[in-house]
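Query structure, 192 tokens:
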């Protein structure tokens, strides 16, 4: 959460905020899932939280992302990478086994912007991820409504999250206001 001049970035970026809020919810030995590995920042965070007795499953559809994430993770043998869409999560994690599933939507910074998450698959993956979470487990989703496809996706995710809230999940939404373009939004949902 620190900027180059070493002052804390305010307000905290959604990526940093997600990690701060999730850290106390993860125990050593847990199974956790990074549904969008990208450059591996969240994968490393999750690997540190669960430690060598835990398991991290990390998914991405881009080889370049997985290569980047693997090099960032280094020798943590408790991280398993899958060059697969996150709609395949159920093939690798048992029902009600995970304490946290993280999604950071959008595209890989610096890479092809057409290789982005898409609303339909994201919704499918969220529904599947919900079945893999333990009761009390947390789903974390960062949406980027500042571009047209991201705006459609963000509405779809928020609509689904609201439906979960009406079924007893505890759901929260974090983001800055008053920006020229819609700012990224962090959504957190705790399973009933
Ligand atoms: C914003 S980046 C993730 C950043 C990453 N969490 C990090 O800490 O560096 C979004 C990633 O989602 C990936 N992605 C897009 N569609 C996907 C899908 N269906 N399944 C898994 N990953 C996907 C992209 O390839 C991209 O690397």
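Result returned for the query:
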């Amino acid at each position: 959460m620190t900027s180059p001049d070493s002052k804390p970035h305010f307000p905290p970026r959604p990526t940093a905020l997600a990690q701060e809020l999730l850290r106390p919810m993860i125990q050593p030995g847990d199974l956790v899932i990074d549904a969008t590995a990208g450059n591996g920042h969240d994968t490393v965070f999750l690997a540190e939280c669960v430690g060598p007795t835990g398991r991290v499953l990390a998914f991405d559809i881009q080889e370049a992302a997985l290569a980047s994430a693997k090099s960032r993770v280094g020798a943590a043998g408790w991280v398993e990478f899958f060059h697969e869409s996150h709609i395949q999560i159920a093939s690798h994690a048992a029902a009600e086994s995970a304490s946290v599933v993280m999604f950071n939507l959008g595209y890989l910074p610096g890479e092809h912007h057409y290789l982005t998450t898409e609303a339909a698959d994201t919704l499918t993956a969220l529904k599947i991820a919900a079945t893999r979470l333990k009761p009390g487990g947390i789903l974390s989703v960062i949406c980027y409504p500042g571009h047209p496809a991201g705006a459609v996706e963000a509405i779809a995710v928020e609509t689904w999250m609201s439906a979960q809230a009406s079924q007893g999940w505890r759901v929260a939404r974090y983001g800055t206001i008053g920006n020229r373009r819609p700012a990224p939004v962090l959504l957190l949902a705790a399973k009933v």
